[in-house]
């Protein structure tokens, strides 16, 4: 039976999967929109990656190794969050961005007491960080920046008045999250609760102080990567699901609301296009059913078993479910889903932000 809780995380990322050593340099200057005075200490980063910096005292910044197209995020506590889509190399070494001061708006919010806030905060962490975030040791270091707007029943919205700083000790990153919107609500068509998250993410790697720690982080990252959103969508994009241990079964509902799992033939259209940027995008269309069961066959170390191998004998099986939220799905070469149109639950959905990896992560071949 299809699980009744579905969660999605929205990353509006326009990037690609090649090695970033082949990338370009982005440089520019940030000034106040009204006074034209340079704005220092702005966090400037490519969304979803480890590529970023902070503007200096003169408002200047430079980031190397960028693969285009990309999405550049400008984050400062006193200025409006800005998002720039950089598609080509014209003017990328001399960007001039005007920063608009943030206006403090008084909203009519439902006041909640400390005990209620604790409940909302815990539910937020379970949906945002993931069902097993405590096991990972993930912590929001400035959760006082969050405020909650209760809705009917157990539904609520959450916002943050500054970028969230999240410690991810198991994978060795500190994650800066500019949370634009979080909403937990009930959607009958999805069979239960659905959380929608829109945010921008910047990963800062925490250096390991010894080789033993380096090896432990490498193992944890590989474990986090396999059977994740990123791993599955990259496999789907590359048309090698079976090689990466995946099988998909469509789940259709008959007139009596009973589920019917059909074979592994994926009878939807897969079309690759080559836009002006030169980066192919995979389009998925014509779904007979929007629901699919995803089976992941793996070893005890969570590494995938190549199901195309005649003598493959997987020792473990993990089950997830996905839902195609639109009639057309776009998957970028990095494995990122545009407009957040694939929703996961089960094992993949449970990982959450606590086990998320940067877009430029490439698993080692060890």
Task: Tell me which oligomeric state these chains represent.
Answer: single chain
Rounded mean pLDDT score: 84
| DSSP E strands, number | 22
Order of helices and strands: EEEEEEEEHHEEEEEEHHEEEEEEEEH
Helix content: 10-25%
Q: What's the N-to-C terminus distance? A: 37 Å
Largest sheet: 7 strands, mixed
Percentage of β-strand residues: 35-45%
Keywords:
single chain, 366 residues, mainly beta, five-stranded antiparallel beta sheet, 22 strands
Structural description of this entry:
The strands form five sheets. Strands 1, 9, 10, 11, 12, 13 and 14 form a seven-stranded mixed beta sheet that branches. This protein has a five-stranded antiparallel beta sheet with strand order 16-15-19-20-22. With 366 residues, it is mostly beta strands. A hairpin with a 5-residue loop joins strand 10 and strand 11. It has five helices and 22 strands.
In short:
The chain has helices at residues 114-128, 133-136, 211-225, 229-237, 346-351, and strands spanning 5-10, 24-32, 43-46, 52-54, 60-66, 70-76, 79-86, 95-99, 139-140, 146-150, 156-160, 164-168, 173-187, 192-205, 246-253, 259-261, 269-273, 281-285, 291-298, 316-324, 329-331, 342-345.
């Amino acid at each position: 039976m299809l699980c009744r809780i579905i969660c999605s995380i929205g990353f509006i990322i326009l990037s690609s999967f090649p090695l970033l050593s082949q990338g370009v340099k982005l440089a520019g200057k940030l000034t106040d929109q009204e006074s034209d005075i340079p704005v220092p200490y702005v966090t400037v980063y490519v969304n979803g990656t480890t590529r970023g910096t902070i503007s200096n005292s003169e408002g200047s910044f430079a980031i190397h190794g960028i693969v285009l197209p990309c999405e550049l995020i400008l984050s400062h506590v006193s200025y409006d969050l800005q998002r720039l889509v950089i598609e080509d190399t014209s003017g990328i070494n001399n960007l001039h961005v005007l920063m608009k001061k943030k206006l403090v708006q008084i909203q009519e919010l439902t006041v909640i007491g400390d005990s209620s806030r604790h409940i909302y905060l815990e539910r937020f962490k379970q949906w945002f960080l993931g069902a097993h975030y405590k096991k990972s040791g993930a912590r929001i270091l400035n959760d006082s920046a969050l405020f909650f707007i209760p809705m009917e029943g157990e539904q609520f919205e959450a916002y943050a008045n500054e970028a969230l700083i999240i410690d991810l000790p198991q994978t060795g990153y500190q994650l800066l999250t500019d949370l634009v919107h979080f909403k937990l609500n009930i959607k009958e068509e999805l069979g239960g609760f659905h959380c929608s998250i829109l945010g921008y993410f910047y990963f800062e790697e925490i250096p390991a102080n010894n080789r033993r720690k380096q090896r432990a982080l490498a193992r944890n990252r590989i474990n986090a990567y396999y059977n994740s959103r990123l791993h599955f969508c990259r496999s789907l994009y590359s048309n090698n699901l079976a090689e990466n241990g995946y099988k998909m079964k469509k789940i259709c509902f008959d007139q009596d609301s009973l589920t019917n799992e059909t074979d592994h033939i994926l009878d939807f259209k897969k079309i690759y296009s080559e836009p002006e940027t030169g980066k192919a995008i995979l389009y998925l269309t014509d779904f007979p059913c929007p629901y699919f069961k995803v089976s992941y066959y793996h070893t005890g170390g969570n590494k995938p078993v190549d199901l195309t191998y005649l003598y493959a004998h997987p020792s473990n099986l993990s089950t997830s479910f996905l839902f195609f939220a639109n009639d057309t799905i776009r998957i970028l070469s990095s494995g990122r889903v545009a407009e957040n149109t694939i929703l996961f639950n089960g094992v993949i959905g449970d990982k959450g932000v606590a086990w998320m990896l940067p877009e430029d992560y490439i698993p080692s071949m060890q």
